[in-house]
Specification:
Number of helices: 7
Strand order of the largest sheet: 3-6-2-1-9-13-14-11
Bound molecules: aspartic acid, magnesium ion
CATH superfamily: Acetylglutamate kinase-like
CATH topology: Carbamate kinase
Structural class: alpha/beta
Number of domains: 1
Radius of gyration: 17 Å
Shape: globular
Strand content: 15-25%
Number of strands: 14
CATH architecture: 3-Layer(aba) Sandwich
Order of helices and strands: EHEHHEEEHEEEHEEEHEHEE
CATH class: Alpha Beta
Helix content: 25-40%
Largest sheet: 8 strands, mixed
């Protein structure tokens, strides 16, 4: 039976064209292994910070609705570029904004909460054998306004989609090898945890990969295994379950 895997790639994994192409190859490999693949992407590199700076350069107090629409563009850029890179490798792929992907939220523009995931569009694209690349960190209100989920919110998009699609696993690709037992910059014998429980992950200050707390709460609620691992190495990573 085909498994459905959700993968999320963070901003540093997508910082330039070479990294985007490397991410596309990793996604392609997952598809080649016989899986259905849904990918969530963050904005490239420091894009979100740059956009915030641009807003602050034109006004002292940026409006929250405008800010959400502005910041959502960062992830739109990533999802289209990853899709183009996959297509040029010969794979069927399609990009979707958060709203197109069925991420419905409340109206808190800068820290919206997901109220519902309607997976119909993604399921249709998967049936047509597409790899689906979704813009993270954003959703849409009942009034069709774009919202954002708070800094680091793409993790939450990924786990919410994994829950809504009943995925086998949610893989979070980042720039560190996983979750450490202690801060490796201070404690030289700090090591990567093979696994950790949701509760523990929420309660302990975690070292290494930082996760959006809402994503862990959703993982616990829907019992979604979350593998946190590096996009730069073949490290086994840490399984949150
Ligand atoms: N791009 C957004 C941020 O930098 C969301 C994310 O990366 O998950 O906070
Ligand atoms: Mg980011």
């Amino acid at each position: 039976m085909t498994d459905l895997i959700v993968q999320k790639y963070g901003g540093s994994s997508l910082a330039d064209a070479e990294r985007i192409k490397a991410v596309a190859r990793r996604i392609a490999l997952t598809k080649d292994n016989g899986n259905q693949v849904v990918v969530v992407v963050s904005a490239m590199g420091n894009t979100t910070d740059d956009l915030i700076r641009q807003a602050n350069a034109v006004t002292e107090k940026p409006d929250e609705r405008e800010m959400a629409l502005l910041l959502s563009t960062g992830e739109i850029v990533s999802c289209t570029l990853v899709t183009m890179a996959l297509r040029s490798l010969g794979y069927k792929a399609i990009s979707l904004s958060g709203g197109q992907a069925g991420i419905r939220t409340d109206t808190d523009y800068s820290r919206a909460r997901i109220v519902d995931v309607d997976p119909q569009r993604i399921l249709k694209e998967l049936r047509e054998d597409n790899i689906v690349i979704v813009a993270g960190f954003q959703g849409i209100t009942e009034e069709m306004d774009i919202t954002t989920l708070g800094r680091g919110g793409s993790d939450t998009t990924a786990v919410a989609l994994a829950a809504g699609l009943d995925a086998k696993v949610c893989e979070i690709y980042t720039d560190v090898d996983g979750i450490y037992t202690a801060d490796p910059r201070i404690v030289p014998e700090a090591r990567i945890l093979e696994e950790i429980g949701y509760e523990e992950m929420l309660e302990l200050a975690s070292y290494g990969a930082k996760m959006h707390p809402r994503s862990i709460e959703l993982g616990a609620m829907y019992n979604i295994p979350i593998l946190v691992t590096s996009s730069f190495t073949d490290a086994p990573g840490t399984l949150i379950h």
